[in-house]
Amino acid sequence: MPYATATDGVRLFYESQGSGPAIVWVHEFAGDHRSWEPQLRHFAPHRRCVVFAARGYPPSDVPHELQAYSQAQAADDIVSVLDAAGIERAHIVGLSMGGFATLHVGLRHPARARSLVVAGVGYGAHPDEAAEFQALSVAAAQQFEALGSQAYAPTYAAGPARIPYQLKNPQGWAEFAARLGEHDATGAALTLRGVQARRPSLYALRDDLRGLQVPTLVVAGDQDDLTLPASLYLKATLPAAGLLVLPRTGHTINLEEPEAFNRAVADFIAAVEAQRWTPRDPRTRGPAMQVGEPQA
Question: Mean pLDDT throughout 2-6?
Answer without folding.
Answer: 98
